[in-house]
Specification:
- The protein is elongated.
- It is α+β, with helices and mostly antiparallel strands.
- Helices cover 40% and strands 13% of the residues.
């Protein structure tokens, strides 16, 4: 099964910093754009999805030992972040 839940957000670094500041267990999905690696230089197209993954995805843990309380803490913190930005839609 999947052990992480990905979230796409264009201002990922802002959300990531907020969640880390609030002691939540999150991580960035990719730390560098793999399409810029030497092995891909011969491709005639840009890998725009690779760049988007690199720039926009954070992942929340969902592994079996992760408690419901920890999941709820993540959800509540993310909701608070978007309410603060006035971007929460019900």
């Amino acid at each position: 099964g999947c052990l992480f839940f990905p979230i796409f957000y264009k201002k990922r670094d802002d959300l990531y910093k907020y969640l880390i500041k609030n002691n939540l267990d999150v991580s960035k999905y990719y730390y560098r754009d793999t399409s810029n690696m030497k092995i891909f230089k011969t491709l005639k197209t840009k890998c725009k999805n690779s760049k988007r993954l690199c720039d926009e995805v954070i992942v929340l843990p969902t592994y079996p030992s992760y408690s419901k309380e920890q999941v709820m803490n993540n959800i509540i913190a993310i909701k608070k972040y978007f309410i603060k930005l006035n971007k929460w839609k019900y």
